[in-house]
Amino acid sequence: MAAGAGRAAARACGRVLGGAFPLPKAHSTTNMEDVGHLVRKIVPPLTTEKHKGQAGRIGVVGGCQEYTGAPYFAAISALKVGADLSHVFCTRDAAPVIKSYSPDLIVHPVLDSPQAKVEVDNWFSRLHVLVVGPGLGRDNALLGSVTGILLAARDRDLPVVIDADGLWLVAQEPSLIHGRRNVVLTPNHVEFRRLWEAVLKEPMDSGDGHAAVQRLSQALGNVTVVQKGQQDVMSDGQEVLVCNQEGSARRCGGQGDILSGSLGVLLHWALMAGPNKTNGSSPTLVASLGACALTRQCSLRAFRKQGRATTASDMIAEIGDAFHTLFEA
Predict the structure, then answer these.
(1) Angle CA(298)–CA(290)–CA(58) in degrees, nearest 5?
(2) What is the C-alpha separation between 175 and 179, in angstroms, rounded?
(3) Nearest CA-CA partner of 168 in 192, 201, 184
(4) Do 105 and 87 contact (CB within 8 A), yes or no?
(5) How far apart are the first and last CA of the chain?
(6) Is 233:209 a contact under the CB 8 Å cutoff?
(7) Structural Rg of the chain based on CA atoms
(8) Residue 223 φ then ψ, to 5°
(9) What is the residue-level pLDDT of the chain in tens, covering all 329 positions?
(10) How many CB atoms lie within 10 A of CB 189?
(11) What is the rounded CA–CA span in Å between residue 134 and residue 318?
(12) What are the residues facing 58 on neighbouring strands?
């Protein structure tokens, strides 16, 4: 794809809808047409003056015997986007499998340990962002450990991206993340409905999806919510952004993991850059918009080459070129 076409596609992602519906605490914001330009401002320059770790140290919490691909996709995506180090905190039987996928990942077989919270907490001072949920599963003991990990992350104010079965846990205990402005939830349609019914205690009104995302965010204390779908709709309770950049019709498993891992890195960069470089918008929203655009671009590029045979691994291979097209060209 030519650079001009990439910029045109990027402009399709940055439509602000805040103020289009009467919700409390909502307000109108200025239009942001060019997501590529906006995200480009938070991307740290490549320079020989920095040391290993400054561009991002990401921890992925997930991975069990049944699900080893998801944490790998999230962790390797973080590295491909530009993080320097990527850790996976998984169960003991999942660790050798995940290690075999890539020597680039640092794998900790601690998640099913009785001391899992302490084991992961010991690494918090060396991490910038946690990505919780890929390949986690719903084993009660594991979910209990992750509950402790999320509480520890709250105590340390560590930014968190939550996806997959991490969202199932949040639906059971919304207080784990309530009011945390540096937390991003990335539900699909089914996960969004589950969260809505758990938090708002009423059936979801599907008449206005944009308003629903904003209302759920507000009910969670302005936690940023990214509802994935035909359009990716995201809100921090004040603004609503929509990414409708072209992706592909192939809905292979693993795309949400690529999104969550990419978002972990962009979240760190956006929080470091601050609102002065995000046109006054929430850094969590800018990071979310960038991750959605990047995932869609990877899907599109992989589909053009592989068609119906496209898998998440094909998308991983496109991250470097897709990132350059959207945010560097």
Answers:
(1) 90
(2) 8
(3) 192
(4) yes
(5) 11
(6) yes
(7) 18
(8) -65, 140
(9) 444 444 444 444 444 333 333 343 333 333 334 677 889 999 999 888 888 888 999 999 999 999 999 999 999 999 999 999 999 999 999 999 999 999 999 999 999 999 999 999 999 999 999 999 999 999 999 999 999 999 999 999 999 999 999 999 999 999 999 999 999 999 999 999 999 999 999 998 777 789 999 999 999 999 999 999 999 999 999 999 999 889 999 989 999 999 999 999 999 999 999 888 888 889 999 999 999 999 999 999 999 999 999 999 999 999 999 999 999 98
(10) 14
(11) 21
(12) 86, 129
Half-sphere exposure of 277 (CA within 13 A, CB side): 17
Residue 101 near residue 257, CB atoms below 8 Å: no
Residue type (1 letter), 74: A
The rounded distance, in Å, linking the Cα atoms of 242 and 15 is 6
Residues 6 or more apart whose Cβ sits within 8 Å of residue 266: 39, 42, 81, 286, 287, 288, 290, 291
Residues of 40-69 as b/e, b for ≥16 C-beta within 10 angstroms? Answer: bebbeeeeeeeeeeebbbbbbbbbbeebbb
Reported pTM: 0.91
Please calculate the CA angle 231-232-233 and round it to the nearest 5 degrees.
Answer: 105
Of 263, 79, 76, 81, nearest to 166 (Cα)?
263
